[in-house]
Amino acid sequence: MLSTYTYSTLPYRKPAELQSGEASRHQVVVIGGGPVGLTAAIDCAQRGLQVLLLDDDNTVSVGSRGVCYAKRTLEVLDRLGCGQAMIDKGVTWNIGRTFHGEGEVYHFELLSDAGHHRPGMINLQQYYLEDYLVQRASGQGGLELRWKNKVVGVTPATDGVALDVETEDGRYQVHADWLIVADGARSSVRRMLGLDIEGKVFQDRFLIADVVMKAAFPAERWFWFDPPFHPGQSVLLHREADNVWRIDFQLGWDADPEVEKQPARVIPRIQAMLGPEHEFELEWVSVYTFQCRRMQSFRHGRVLFVGDAAHQVSPFGARGANSGIQDSDNLAWKLKLVADGDAPDALLDTYSEERVAAADENLLNSTRSTDFITPKSVVSRCFRNAVLTLAGKHAFARTLVNSGRLSVPTILVASRLNTPDSDSGTDAFGGTMIPGAPMDDAPVRVEGRAGWLLDQVGAGFALMLFTDDASALDAGTRATLKALAATRPGVAPLIVAPQAGRGGDGVTWLEDVEGLVRERYDGRPGSAYLLRPDQHVAARWRKLDAAKVRAALARATCNA
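User: That's the sequence. What structure does it adopt?
Assistant: Structure tokens below.
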């Protein structure tokens, strides 16, 4: 039991199959009711797919577990209807400080410029995120949640997957056109299918101690190397909701997990860190090890793996839940297009290709962070300590300090869904919004109301066209946009201008009130961007050409 949070029991109901004696069939079955599985289920259902979610438990996660959620994850949760609840409850932070011994080495800012809807990072206990997702899922049409339903058998076929499910009332069978596996790092489905996951297990142990206290510490990320209160090891401090503070102590591989979790061992460590002036209560304690590994492919026929079931990283950098939620964001729109017959089966291969590339980026950064935090040789430790000493005075050394490269979305530069830039010379695009990049947000006005760019993109393909004169959108351009909107899949037209223009014909006008959309997208008049349903750039041109847009759309859906 926690002093700041009360767990509720999610309802179990006898499945209809046990009453009828017949197996049922569903378009999508999701296994796993954690953040990634719930995100995938909600996203698929919002897109019109019929979804069944199965979970072998009947409550949200025990303990705070994942606590850091990055800007891109919050933007995905906004689209699913949970982002604002996260912001309202969570602790927003933007500054991280790194210490060596007693002194600060340097600090960083996650977002150095204004004009973003969501912060660089918030901290919030995982059970709150799961609460919000369960509430959202419970009200979503086309989505059925079944708690205390344990999958004990998985039989793939060419046209779907058969599942054997065990409950307190007996065993039954369901059939899925598509199976999304989100059952965590110890995935039973992965084991049942005999699939391997490869990588490295790190021989170190860390103690998580969540404590309740009222402290004047700022809402920042503090990381210590070799502090006087925990010599030779590292410590991390984060503030969470409800006056809860997360403290991570590096223990070393020889530490006994059961001994280290005992209050008689934990409390003196925290007292040494905080000093006698800070009173606190233990909220939750755990000892963990971690690994950096992934499956070779995240797709196996009609079975698709997401989150920790597909890949695992160290907790340094908050790359676990954030990357898992982005897996779901990448998968759901592709699954919808394939299920509706608007894209070939090959589009789902690109889910694995793109998210394997993202996982490799996360694994690389996570492994480097872990090697810096826990050097395994005398030479590595000497290098680490030299970098930390130099970083206090020299900027070049600060780039080498690695206490966890924090989660950022992957730029899918090598994706075969991208259409490469064709404009060059003086027409070449500047900035970071290259094909494959996740979109930058910016403030806009829509029909006189303040809003944000990403909220207007929606959940489908969109075409963003820049103009400097709202009255200059001629009949030919309007006809082109109307025709593109009528294609399958449709392309929603967005017009970005310094002032509002005339709507109609399905056109949405976005007033670039601060000029940040134009700045961040190098949006000269006439420039056009094709945007994917997961808010990544698919293609861009200096001049709107319907044939080029259709070719890029075909490429982005594997219809080329």
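The CA atoms of residues 125 and 451 lie 28 Å apart.
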